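Suppose a classmate hands you a notebook page containing two proteins, each written out with its sequence and a corresponding row of structure tokens. How would you begin to make sense of it? This section walks through that situation. The first entry is reproduced here exactly as it would appear on such a page.
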Amino acid sequence: MKLTDNVLRSFRVAKVFRENSDKINCFDFSSNGESIISSSDDDSLVLYDCQEGKPKRTLYSKKYGVDLIRYTHAANTVVYSSNKIDDTIRYLSLHDNKYIRYFPGHNKRVTSLSMSPVDDTFISGSSDKTIRLWDLRSPNCQGLMHLQGKPVCSFDPEGLIFAAGINSEMVKLYDLRSFDKGPFATFKLQYDRTCEWTGLKFSNDGKLILLSTNGGALRVLDAFKGAVLHSFGGYNNSKCVPLEASFTPDSQFVMIGSEDGKIHVWNAESGMKVALLDGKHTGPITCLQFNPKFMTFASACSNMAFWLPTIDD
């Protein structure tokens, strides 16, 4: 089944889960699309089965809190940042609920965490104005970059380069093998003092970069030239919440939630709005991602919603 405007417009909430007592701050699909794990401000990690459409397990990180949860390539393992006590990143085995390793180094809140799509490398960005490069097999930082401001960062789909959005005004591209030589490209954008950048993602085809904010606009950039192709707005975010925006897996569409529980979808190429979907969320939709393998997506406030199309196009 191909994702088209009509198929997107037909999506409806199929299931709602009320496993959390506070907002879900992050979730991540497994690469095979079969499961999803969420982290919440209530200090819990909830594991869902996407095929059966039900929660499987709940684990807790009461002492350190949990945010920015990411699956690694090993089965049943995740990395996540702490939002209590310290700013250490933790590597957890879901199988036996035991920590495999800690990654200390940041001394302010971690704001970005991106797992390499090809190996055990990951990068983290923090309010301490650094990006750190890590390997899951070692607790020691493999590389450190001092920046001019707070970063958001992500690997590209090949895992060869990573992008850093710095100070909400410039995007720098680094070659992973020689990042200590500095960026090979820098794109300066017009600074918007009404909002901060809160997320950066590449499209799966590697051609576009999506910058999400805590304001009422997001931007799509040409990943090679740095030109702003589209600025999308018209969704509600009066309380300056960091709202997650996402590409669909085919790189054709961009979607974002809003504080009034609605999801807005645009065509990434033409910039045309193609859908407005009502998720009936009770709070702002802080998290939104499309399943990498199946025709379904998930959105979250303090509740988790699974969506399915209602037509076969």
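The notebook's second entry, a different protein, reads as follows.
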Amino acid sequence: FTYRKNFPPIGGTGPTSDTGWGCMLRCGQMILGEALVRRHLGQDWRWMRSQPPREEYISILNAFLDKKDGYYSLHQIAQMGVGEGKSIGQWYGPNTVAQVLKKLAVFDSWSRLAVHVAMDNTVVIEEIKRLCMPWLDYGGAACVELQGGMPERNGCLEGACALAEEETALWKPLLLLIPLRLGLSDINEAYIETLKQCFQLPQSLGVIGGKPNHAHYFIGYVGEELIYLDPHTTQPAVEPCEDSQVPDDTYHCQHPPCRMHICEIDPSIAVGFFCRTEDDFDDLCMRFRKLSHTRAGLPMFELVDCQPSHFACSVDVLNLNPDFSDSDRLERFFDSEDEEFEILSL
């Protein structure tokens, strides 16, 4: 996903292009798009121009088209971000876009994706299992379910929706996003090896981050270089054809992805993981524990079974925005919600 132009005005009277401010929103779309591809098409699926697209693929694309009624459109992300303290046209940090995607996923009853944003550098297993299996009733908590029926979800017919519900009868597929700050103005080199190892996990979706006010979607590494997709190309907005097919060439790379030295990455990032089943999540937790015991680098976050006692009792407390006005200096190095992060250092 890249910058687009000439789409319907956001909010009816807002911008018609996201050039210059929407790069982190596009990176959020990319990491979520990868999760949806794995959810509906499988991890081994690959796009081929010569083959007719699958119905699920068209449904995923429809969810991201630049129009107000797309579940994960730029319009929806920008307008939902207002609730996170971001005006339309303002640059997002990784944590903000993670929180917005979490809220938008509630309305996508076709994918039935459980999005968990792990705050305070801590992944709490109990919280995630409560989210993905609310019917087991952990103290009466449950994730939001939409009421009422709709004939289509993201352009997908009811039969496919029923199939999706059957597949997720025991576990709602999990998108786990972990916002982190791995240093002050530069990444602490003690975390570099651990970050590399995260890319090797089979559940990894990559990392959203980049340079200050210049976001990228990192999908892997070679040696000391990170491989990333760059949204900073402005393309015309895409309109579906009369037969509901979506011209999709501009949603796929026509050239090799970019590279940058790992030390150049801004320390404010969000790492993403996808677990289709409970076994996938249990396996991910096992791999997290192995990573925490390696001596190659410092752990980037903590994995715990239950919520620590020092955590706030109410989830709402975690969503409070800090009450201060951003200066240019703070915008240079910090997301506006960085007070929610614990600074990690040697």
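A careful reader of the second entry would note: The chain has ten helices and eleven strands.
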